[in-house]
Amino acid sequence: MPARVLRSTGSGRRPVEDIHTSLTPLATAEANLVRLAEQAHRDLDALAHPAAAWVRPVAGPGGEPVAEVVIVGAGQAGLNVGLALKREGVRKIVLLDRNPSGCEGPWETFARMEVLRTPKTLVGAELNIPSLSVRSWFEARYGTEAWQKITWIPRRDWMAYLRWYRTIAGLDIRNEVEVAGIAPAGDLLAVKTEAAARCDTLLARRVVIATGHDGGGSWSVPEIITAALPPQAYAHSNGPIDFGALVGKRVGVLGHGGSAFDAGLAALHNGAASVDLCFRRALLPVVNPHRWLEFSGFLAHYRELDDRTRWNVGRHFDVEDQPPPRHTFERARAEPRLQVHGDSAWRTVAWTGTKIEVTTDRDRRPQRPVAPTGTDRHRRSDRDLVGPLYAAAGRGAPRACQAPLSRHAFRVPREGSKHRAVSGAYLRLQFFRDGQHGSGLDLDYRAPLRRTAPCARGDPQPLS
Question: Which of 272, 306, 421, 422 is deepest in the core (most CB within 10 A)?
Fold first, then answer.
């Protein structure tokens, strides 16, 4: 039975079939995808010039092999970067991912939405080769008419496309390998790994970290919950959830983002009695400010904007927030057991031994909370992986450490530093760029304004 959602009509709501959850592959889908893979290989060969490997090989201090580039993460970004480097004549590329093969990224783990949140027309992964595009893959599997009907790409199909893309890219991918740290090793970088209870070190000339949001820090649950409840009584929406334990229960969800709605819907699908979704805002956001970004002038030249403009852009997106994805919200509207409560910050949380009591401005009492509340940037993050590089970035630092550690300082405007909704970690992502100001940014809420230029060695020097 195909899934159904409710959409508004002039006289109310009526159920209509959701094409995104009722797709049927063509009878010729497998043969079509084989032919598409052959075409993709031909296209890559046709555009391969200049194909010669040009990076001078080097060996480690003891003659160990050295990778030209190690990419941490073999999800969509890691695959794209790896294939792009390969096309540029970089040959010794190694991708490391802690997940099993075919399960990289969130798509088969904690992502619970039915469709991607980005438009189906988003491009980039195909590297300007049409036969590598998700549209070509989708049409080979479901047909051209199905592509015309969908608005978003189904999540499971996106993961299937990435698996197919991996076979075309032909990269050296090592799964179930955890990167424990990155440290200088002369002019090289030592990537410390853990796999099957075995520790190892891989030498590389350059390292690319492609770990997505997971690399920004540990997913965090508010202390008001963790301090009051036993671990089995709550979960984070971006982690494993024992939905079987929620059967027949009243579930509370804290937050209004996409993962909050997705977790609530998944709980109901798996037998929860009801879901109360609570958040601090009086009303849900209705406009997604990120859609404004999607024009070439902004995407191509964002890094050229001055600091204050980029700060304002980042702060606006953090403060204004975005609504839950439309497809997810429509599913929620169709579910009478999911109730949405604005202006309902959780004031107290208590554990009675058998149930959870939550006091809000509207006095809701869920039996088990799910908290989709973002990441704690003060816990383990990608910066922890490269911590030894910061320590080694002084005078005499190896060349491999110099470029990533160039910094640019920007004093947060007064109105930004006072606004509690501003996330310094999120805004830091808005400022990463290369060029004249280096590749990173330190946000300083207290220090006087000190503009700095990147230096090859030693500490940044003030600009006049």
Answer: 272
Rounded to a whole number of angstroms, the distance between the first and last alpha carbons of the chain is 69
Rounded to an integer, what distance in angstroms lies between the CA atom of residue 355 and that of residue 358? Answer: 10
Is residue 408 very low, low, confident or very high in pLDDT (cuts 50, 70, 90)? Answer: low
Map tokens 């910050």 to a residue.
345
Q: Which residue has the tokens 């309902």?
A: 344
Can you give the pLDDT at residue 216?
74
What integer is the mean pLDDT of 327-343? 93
This prediction's pTM: 0.80
Domain match, 230 and 189 both: no
pLDDT of residue 361: 76
Phi-psi region of 255 (alpha: psi -120 to 50; beta: other; left: phi over 0): left
Structure tokens at 247: 């059967």
The two structure tokens encoding residue 287: 């406009």
DSSP per position, 273-289? SEEEEE-SSSS-----G
* Residue 173 amino acid letter: I
- Kindly state the average pLDDT of the residues 91-96: 97
In terms of pLDDT, which residue wins out, 191 or 377?
191
Instruction: Record the tokens describing residue 209, joined without a space.
Output: 């970290």
| 60 Cβ neighbours under 8 A, 6+ residues apart | 66, 185, 188, 203
Residue 388: pLDDT band with limits 50, 70, 90: low
Distance CA 461, CA 464 (A): 9
CA 241 – CA 146 distance, rounded (Å): 33
Question: Domain boundary at 161, 194, 210, which?
Answer: 210
String of DSSP letters for 76-97:
HHHHHHHHHHHHTT---EEEEE
Same-domain check for residues 150 and 264: no
How many domains is the chain partitioned into structurally? 2
Supply the range of the domain harboring residue 229.
216-286+323-376
Distances (CA, A) of 442 to 17, 184, 214, 419, 426: 49, 22, 20, 18, 12
In a shared domain, residues 73 and 159: yes
Q: Is 257 helix (H, G, I), strand (E, B) or coil?
A: coil
How wide is the angle at C-alpha 115 spanned by C-alphas 367 and 8, nearest 5°? 80
Q: Is residue 19 packed enough to be buried (19+ CB in 10 Å), middle (13-18) or exposed (0-12)?
A: middle
The residues, ordered by sequence, that sit 6+ positions from 347 with a Cβ below 8 Å of its Cβ are 359, 360, 361
* Phi, psi (degrees; rounded to nearest 5) at 310: -65, -35
Once rounded to an integer, what is the mean pLDDT over residues 104-116? 92
Per cent of the chain over pLDDT 90 is 55
Same domain, 246 and 168: no
